[in-house]
Amino acid sequence: MLRYTPAGMPAVEFRIAHASEQEEAGGRRQVEAELGAIAFDAQARLLAQAALNSGVRLQGFLAAKSRRSRRPVLHVTNIEFVETLNEGDADASAS
Fold first, then answer.
1. What CATH number does the domain containing 69 carry?
2. What does DSSP say about strands 27-40 and 72-82: parallel, antiparallel, or unpaired?
């Protein structure tokens, strides 16, 4: 859901769900992870219009959620919507 920061900048907070099969120590391993993310400005507007569970490729950087919470959050700087996900791609669900 699109919101606005106190400075008036559009922002969207969401979660990224990732599932893939990776090679590790000579074998295949099922990998699943979930990570919080946030996008601002143009990227926030794009995500606010996207359908839930849209396939995306994201670029950005990790930063602590806040000064009190050291939990990592992905700050999205680039979004590419994809129809089919390949191994290693992320699936984002806006929340």
1. 2.40.50.140
2. parallel
